[in-house]
Amino acid sequence: MKIxxxxxxxxxxxxxxxLLNDIRLSQLYFCPGNGATCELGENINIKGxxxxxxxxxxxxxxxxxxxxxxxxTSGLSNQLRENNIRxxxxxKEAAKLEDSKIFMKxxxxxxxxxxxxxxxxxxxxxxxxxxxxxxxQKVVVKADGLCAGKGVIIANKDEAKKVLDxxxxxxxxxxxxxSVVIEEYLDGFxxxxxxxxDGDDFIIxxxxxxxxxxxxxxxxxxxxxxxxxSPTPLCSDELLNDIKQNxxxxxxxxxxxxxxxxxxxxxxxxxxxxxxPYVLEFNVRFGDPECEVxxxxxxxxLLDIINASIDKKIKNFKYEILDKSCVGxxxxxxxxxxxxxxxxxxxxxxINFLSNQLSHISFAGVSNIDxxxxxxxxxxxxxxxxxxxxxxxxxxxxxxxxxxxxxxMQFRNDIAYRALK
Length: 421
Ligand code: AMP
Ligand code: GLY
Fold this sequence. Notes:
By secondary structure, the protein is an alpha+beta fold. The chain has four domains: 2-89, Rossmann fold (3-Layer(aba) Sandwich), CATH 3.40.50.20; 117-184, ATP-grasp fold, A domain (Dna Ligase, domain 1); 192-310, ATP-grasp fold, B domain (D-amino Acid Aminotransferase, Chain A, domain 1); 325-420, Alpha-Beta Complex (Glycinamide Ribonucleotide Synthetase, Chain A, domain 4). It is 29% helix and 29% strand. It is built from 13 helices and 25 strands. The chain has helices at 10-20, 49-58, 69-73, 76-82, 96-99, 101-110, 124-133, 157-168, 237-257, 290-294, 302-310, 390-402, 417-420, and strands spanning 2-7, 27-32, 42-43, 63-66, 87-88, 118-121, 138-143, 152-156, 180-184, 189-198, 202-204, 209-210, 213-215, 219-222, 227-230, 263-273, 276-283, 325-332, 344-345, 347-348, 360-363, 366-369, 372-375, 379-387, 404-405. Helix 7 packs antiparallel against helix 8. The model has no long low-confidence stretch (mean pLDDT 95). Glycine binds at residues 149, 210, 225, 283, 287-288, 290.
């Protein structure tokens, strides 16, 4: 069968690696892909949902896997389904869980699902009153719409009011900030929990932890994520059960009740405070870099899991996870996350490129010029180490980095530190 993967990051690269050795796959396409995905399949340079649908029809694509949020919130999966093309990714209506923080918070509120206290809207006075009413020193200001991971600001009350002003007048995030959510600040540790859903039922993939700050010890600016590991010992069975019963199950019921049943990957960003899970956010897709450390741990073929979701057979679906650990270290360009960086040639030796169950590299911001790979800004690749323990996986990830380099590369040295404390 022919499969099209929509997206261009290391997440999409790792999805491809998980499918590559499946004998059912005849050809992989990426839209748009990156300078390394063209080694795994064919990059298709088309833009716009109509063009993607037409490509799928004309090329007999049997399955489309949508990686990033933007095509989901724009309704690509609806359009594919209307044309009888199999797609893994929620509808536009279900993707609102990520597209609008106000929608998401209102669902949580209406169905009594645990989340930070909040107030939302665009009335500055009411929002400021709510800020004053909170008893925490720090408060959280969130733009309602998608801001590529930059729409959340944590500040003291005076700063928060200033930021609020800049969001509402459009100077900070444009239209995405024209409505905002104010939240109480939660002080705990974060987990990334992924549920593969078919509208009614779900299965849980190994738990993960992301590292959002640029620098070691969680210092520096927020990024798209500088590394992740899985599974995390911080997620006990008891905690996971709590998340399943009191967060994921009622969220699927809520979405069904709202006429927007959720099929696809539900990514729950959880904050654990005093052993109680709170929903920070929902994403409607695999996390990046979490995806890169979770997929290598699947013993059951990814394609079987995707098919069970699309065919609504998750309820009795049996799946197996390897008894291994995985650590992914993001290597970024010199100026990340502030501005673009010059193209730099990537040099490497002794690296496995074609199996995702051995330590490997997942490529993201790279271009390919005459068969040579160049770092092309942003997050360039993820070094994915696999081992019997997190320590071993971490050593394997950093060993990989010794064998691959480009000028100006930066990465954190402490990925998985919370698991190793
Ligand atoms: P979000 O996009 O809503 O997940 O927010 C991005 C990041 O901001 C989260 O991963 C947390 O690190 C932080 N954050 C968001 N909401 C809160 C909150 N209520 N309390 C503390 N930190 C938060
Ligand atoms: N790792 C966080 C995200 O994908 O948004």
